[in-house]
Amino acid sequence: MAAAPVWSVDPRTGKPREQVADEATAHEVDTVVRAAHDARGFLADRTVRAAFLRTAADRLEDAKDRLVEAADAESALGPVRLNSELARTCYQLRAFAGIVEEGAFLDVVIDHPDADATPPVPDLRRYKVPLGVVAVYSASNFPFAFSVAGGDTASALAAGNPVVVKAHPDHPALSELVAKVLRRAAAEHGVPADVLGLVHGFEAGLELIRHPLIAAAGFTGSVRGGRALFDAAAARPVPIPFHGELGSLNPVLVTEAAAAERAEAIGTGLAGSMTLGTGQFCVKPGLVLAPSGASGDRLVKSLTDAVSDTEAGVLLDHRMRDNFLAGVTERAGLPGVESPVTPGAGGEHTVSAGFLTVPAAHLTAEGAYDLLLEECFGPVTVVARYEDDAEARAVLARLPGNLTATVHLSAGEAAGEGRGAEILAELTPLAGRVLVNGWPTGVAVAPAQHHGGPYPATTSTSTSVGGTAVERWLRPVAYQGVPEALLPPELRDANPLGLPRRFDGVLER
Amino acid sequence: MAAAPVWSVDPRTGKPREQVADEATAHEVDTVVRAAHDARGFLADRTVRAAFLRTAADRLEDAKDRLVEAADAESALGPVRLNSELARTCYQLRAFAGIVEEGAFLDVVIDHPDADATPPVPDLRRYKVPLGVVAVYSASNFPFAFSVAGGDTASALAAGNPVVVKAHPDHPALSELVAKVLRRAAAEHGVPADVLGLVHGFEAGLELIRHPLIAAAGFTGSVRGGRALFDAAAARPVPIPFHGELGSLNPVLVTEAAAAERAEAIGTGLAGSMTLGTGQFCVKPGLVLAPSGASGDRLVKSLTDAVSDTEAGVLLDHRMRDNFLAGVTERAGLPGVESPVTPGAGGEHTVSAGFLTVPAAHLTAEGAYDLLLEECFGPVTVVARYEDDAEARAVLARLPGNLTATVHLSAGEAAGEGRGAEILAELTPLAGRVLVNGWPTGVAVAPAQHHGGPYPATTSTSTSVGGTAVERWLRPVAYQGVPEALLPPELRDANPLGLPRRFDGVLER
Questions:
Q1: In this complex, is the C-beta atom of A37 within 8 Å of any C-beta atom belonging to chain B?
Q2: Is A436's CB within 8 Å of B109's CB?
Q3: Spatial separation of the C-alpha atoms in residues B509 and B500, rounded to whole Å
Q4: Hey, which of A64, A280, B20, B219 has its CA 20 to 30 A from A111?
Q5: Residue B127 in contact with residue B106, Cβ under 8 Å?
Q6: Smallest Cβ distance to B477: which of A400, A428, A479?
Q7: Which residues of A touch B442 (CB under 8 A)?
Q8: B222, B88 in Cβ contact below 8 A?
């Protein structure tokens, strides 16, 4: 059987640019995974890991112009956005280097013997060890930050695991370039280049998730693709953790008081957030609950003006464009749904932003309108007009899990008047990040970040952005009665590495 | 259709004692889960939760005599063991009360805005919230500590989640009694009794794992039962975390030097550990790698003497006795396997302890002898005699995941001579707890404990014993741009609750 070619395609024209590679065969996947597995010992030293991550960031920056050009040619995301995404990616690699050095994620807990406990406690010392080779499935919409050198890879390496990346077919050439940079950065620190493997191909992705030496997986993409891989991970003879970020509607509630106070600003802000990057963010606000009546009308008017002014854009690939056009057509065709600005085809290769409105009453019970509660990838949002708080709550109660949930409050509500705190409590079960008076697009890389949420937002309770993302790739081990001479330095009483820890029950920092 | 009766059975005679209940119908399961879900808000206050857990411990102690009598009648574990297990259970409930009060598990992280970050960081504050109603599947072999009031229940309540327990059919009457004690303890603190539900029946257990309001599950039991429930949890429209402890061989390696130094003590210690509780512990040492030659012979001799002196015992139920007898017969029948003390039937309702020996060479490659690498529940262990280190390592490399792995070292090796540190590193990938010169039976309730391990030891990377067990039942939520007036007290700058946290990157304790 001939190997299937992997082509780089220009989304601005739909035309192939060059053949990048062949899809990996099962044998090739096996070779890459075994090589990564064999390299794992070289990541054991945290000092080496941190240095490798910093060098990776340096080398990506060194190659910035070439990488951004390659990324733009395959993604059409434009150099401004791509330069900023690359900067974010490097910032993230360095942030994880700092996390590696601090070592809090090792979660060291030391208990000395306690004869008075029930039952008595022996000498017990626990910390976390890397899981093994991690499979990372790249995203289409973040060719840097959620791809070969993205958050999953950075956090998995930070935890001490080799990584095998399944490249996204939307940017295979860039994936090869970035992988080379990472592999060379590893070599600079005496770490075998095979600590970062790369494979192409749909079937190769399935082979990867089923490989016995793959210990965990990270994924960013669609509900359909992510669920198929999640199911494969769970069906293995030895199931493995699958941390997938699949899909999210990212509901926004605008209170009556907030709309009365600043309908125009909210409408403009919403337009900016939902059309940002041609609506191709997983945290794009896809459902907005706005009051019926005059204040809500002003919001819709302002949104109409701002969205009308948005230029047509190129989506990441033509399949997405087809799905977007079909999705908006089907949604707009529902009785009672209006299109103040009709989303649709721009030119032959572009799409134009738009939005739909619907009475919220249509969304309070199961039926055909449930389509409006599903994510539609691209520059469109649905504004559901509610009659009263109870109706808005009824819609919120029907939503699946989300990455984010947002409320816009009036100044008074933000200061504690009215239902502000109640609304926050109502939004919390819906999402992994809850915002007040902001927009969900823009996911900061920060210790307190949580980019995840109830299914289908993510398939686990973990985050793929922020410092705690490293926790996904570790498991605890407790050592009982191990003599001082044999203890790893992390677990010695004297704490030679200066790690934060819990020592005989007391937190030490 | 008539409801299926649930009988309490005396394992000492195999005779039914009394009908305890009926198996729960799907409708009844639904009612119990919904009632638990509706009660969840009453657990929101950590002070109330801690008080409830302490009262639960107090009330279990108040009812001690009655509970131990009921437990013994259904489990035949005897009052000494059961009193100590109940004490452990109460200690555990109080330990979790302390964990609730400390609040470190909330994992509070606060980031103030940082315009210099890439991208800029907004005000972000993260902590962990309870998942929702937790399903707990009780174990047969710990009627107190891993059942209705056991570690899964205690940790799930500590995290703020209601619990619905699926009672183990080996102790339905005790389950009812313990549930009543817990429900009354809840009521003492104004928490609805429905915060702790109890159902009986195999089908009810399946209904439970599939119920849309069940948010996570804990399980202690067999590989077969646990995997079926794990699969059901993963196949749900909304998959949920399933923390199952399934099975473990608990390998023990005795080095040549250790055997030379103290073969007799090791043999006697092994006999005590493998026959403890009639071999019905999940951490029973089921495979012992002992050297061939004179030192190993002394170990086997000492084991023979000690095991021969062990009295016959009653297993938890007659199905287990049947499985044990079939399991040891099949294993003993393999060519080259010897039985220095033949395990088998004691009297009509009892079993007698024994052990098998086999050349380790039989275990270094796939084949019929793989049966010896599977857990056999009951008082039996397999001693594999190895010729050299390489052979011992080859057997270890073939083992599935374990709860524990143990090495017995000589005094010199423990002090750093020879391969001690290397062996520890080799055992670490095999298990969640690694012991030196001890026995795996006896699982301390302590902050550093880890009772879990690579599959099939557990289906997740978490622990079911020790302080960190609480982490299984939580998910993080980040709040972005939330005004001070609306922030929960846990996330306020002033830290009114005195919680340990990470504040602008710095750990505060």
A1: no
A2: no
A3: 4
A4: B219
A5: yes
A6: A428
A7: 119, 122
A8: no
- Which residue of the set B28, B207, B256, B282 is catalytic? B282
Chain B residue with minimal CA distance to A116? Answer: B91
Rounded to whole angstroms, how far apart are CA atoms B204 and B183?
A: 20
Angle at B444 between CA B441 and CA B450, to 5 degrees: 90
Q: Is A214 on the interface with B (CB under 8 A)?
A: no
pTM for the complete prediction?
0.97
Hey, of A106, A236, A482, which one would you mutate to test binding to chain B, going by the most B CBs within 10 A of its CB? Answer: A482
The sign of the CA dihedral B390, B394, B397, B403 is: negative
Query: Interface pTM (ipTM) of the complex?
Result: 0.97
Contact B435, B420 (CB under 8 A): no
Q: At A164, is the secondary structure helix, strand, or coil?
A: strand
Question: What are the tens digits of pLDDT across the range A175-222?
Answer: 999 999 999 999 999 999 999 999 999 999 999 999 999 999 999 999
Interface of B with A in 447-486 (CB under 8 A): 447-450, 452, 454-456, 459-461, 463, 466-468, 474-483, 485-486
Residues in chain A: 509
Is residue A315 a contact partner of residue A10, using CB atoms and an 8 Å limit? no
Please give, rounded to a whole number of angstroms, the shortest distance from the CA of B323 to a CA of chain A. 23
Neighbours of A504 (CB within 10 A): 14
Q: Which two tokens stand for residue B354?
A: 């024994």
* Given the residues A28, A85, A282, A413, the one annotated as active site: A282
Q: How far apart are the C-alpha atoms of A15 and A349, rounded to whole Å?
A: 11
B282 classed as catalytic:
yes
**Geometric angle at alpha carbon B427, from B423 and B433, rounded to 5°:** 125
Give chain B positions within 8 Å (CB) of A428: 129, 477
Active site residue B422: no
Query: Which tokens go with B297?
Result: 């012979």
Nearest one of A65, A240, A36 to A153, comparing CA atoms: A36
| Per-window interface: A 66-95 vs B, CB < 8 A | 84, 87-88, 90-91
Q: Which of A87, A109, A124 sits opposite B444 (nearest CB)?
A: A124
* Structure-block tokens of residue A218: 């990270």
Q: Name the helix (H) or strand (E) containing B345.
A: strand B344-345
* Token pair in block for residue A304: 């109409």
pLDDT in tens, A343-397: 999 889 999 999 999 999 999 999 999 999 999 999 999 999 999 999 999 999 9
Tell me the HSE value of B455 on the side-chain side, using a 13 A CA sphere. 22
User: How are beta strands B287-291 and B380-386 bridged, if at all?
Assistant: parallel
φ, ψ of residue A357 to 5 degrees: the values are -125, 155
Break chain A down into helix, strand, coil percent, rounded to 5.
Answer: 45, 20, 35
For residues A152-159, give the mean pLDDT: 98
Distance of alpha carbon B131 from alpha carbon B486, whole angstroms: 22
Are A338 and A300 in contact by the 8 Å Cβ rule? The answer is no
**A344-345: strand order across its sheet:** A313-314, A350-352, A344-345
Quickly tell me which residue has 């879900």 as its tokens.
B37
Return the closest-CA partner of residue B229 out of B212, B209, B213: B209
The span from the CA of A171 to the CA of A68, in Å, is 12
Sign (positive or negative) of CA dihedral B55, B444, B136, A461 = positive
Distances (CA, A) of A110 to A189, A468, B299: 32, 22, 33
Domains, in order of start, for chain B: 23-102+130-246+461-473 (3.40.605.10), 251-436 (3.40.309.10)
Q: For A231, how many CA atoms within 13 A lie in the half-sphere containing its CB?
A: 10
Residue A343 near residue A304, CB atoms below 8 Å: no
- Average pLDDT (B14-41) is 97
Q: Tell me which DSSP letter residue B458 carries.
A: B
C-beta separation of B185 from B56 below 8 A: yes
Task: Check if A107 contacts B (Cβ < 8 Å).
Answer: yes
